[in-house]
Specification:
The chain has 127 residues and is α/β, with parallel strands linked by helices. 40% of the residues lie in helices and 21% in strands.
């Protein structure tokens, strides 16, 4: 049985790139959902939780940090692993999220190897 993932990014191009990276890494995802901002992402998660979330840091409306903090405040979502994805040069913000509980960080642009290294530990190294 494959995994379910949610890709939250305001760029359709980046969402497609992450979707492709999931496939290229051999990550068996049967259910891949996408959201253009954190508010939509939270709605999708509350309707049907997933095994893994990829969230961009900077988005309109509800950004990745706000979304993740709302997930952590929700008992039904707080254990869902989140990989923060960002091109933001402010590494302190990303590292603070990691220290607070983000499962991983991917800096854009990332290589397939970096993607695989970030994701494999979160799914039991099954890649």
């Amino acid at each position: 049985m494959g995994y379910s993932i949610l890709i939250v990014d305001d760029s359709a191009t980046t969402r497609a790139f992450i979707r492709r990276a999931v496939q290229m890494a051999g990550f068996e995802a049967d259910d891949v959902r996408e959201a253009a901002d954190g508010a939509i992402g939270l709605d999708l998660l509350r309707a049907r939780p997933v095994d893994l979330v990829f969230a961009d840091l900077q988005m309109p409306n509800v950004d990745g940090e706000q979304m993740v903090r709302q997930m952590w405040a929700d008992p039904a979502l707080r254990r869902t692993p989140v990989v923060m994805v960002s091109a933001d040069p402010d590494t302190d913000r990303l590292e603070a999220l990691r220290a607070d509980g983000a499962a991983g960080v991917l800096r854009k642009p990332f290589t397939p190897e970096e993607f695989k290294a970030a994701v494999a530990p979160l799914i039991g190294g099954a890649l």
